[in-house]
Amino acid sequence: MGTIGIDHLAMPTANAEKLIGFYKKLGFDINDEADWRNGKANIFSIQVGESKINVHPEGFTASLRGDTALPGSADICFVWDGTPEECQKMLADAGVEIIRGPGPRKGARARGSLTAVSMYARDPDHNLLEWMVYI
Predict the structure, then answer these.
(1) What is the reported pTM?
(2) pLDDT tens track of the chain, all 135 residues?
(3) The architecture CATH gives domain 74-135
(4) Based on the number of CB atoms within 10 Å of its own CB, is 90 exposed (0-12), middle (13-18) or buried (19 or more)?
(5) What DSSP character marks residue 43?
(6) Which of 14, 58, 59, 125 has the fewest Cβ atoms within 10 angstroms?
(7) Yes or no: is domain 7-59 CATH 3.40.50.1820?
(8) 19 closest CA partner among 119, 126, 93, 116
């Protein structure tokens, strides 16, 4: 037995509305959005497969979070289930600028031995986002 995956990670945002709009344009589901909007939840999350990204909206405080957590401090790599061209189209259709790539990358699958390409972009908080495409 041992650690087998990542359940969730958390990141703060400077503008929750912009972040929600951005990730929705990319096709992500937003968990607890309605409860957050009506004050029943103090955070919401972005669903990523069987994992999620908890978002700490502006003004959120908690005792259990990174000591230096600031908007724009995340670096997240998503796995795209399709071709590099399909990923590029999805990003373009969402109005997201690719700042680097597509280019060869070493991912985590098979301990880095599988062929992959990736492309990078930034979200509204300037978090670095990467889409890894295994080919």
Answers:
(1) 0.93
(2) 799 899 999 999 999 999 999 999 999 999 999 999 999 999 999 999 999 999 999 999 888 888 889 999 999 999 999 999 999 999 999 999 999 999 999 999 999 999 999 999 999 999 999 999 999
(3) Roll (3.10)
(4) middle
(5) -
(6) 59
(7) no
(8) 126
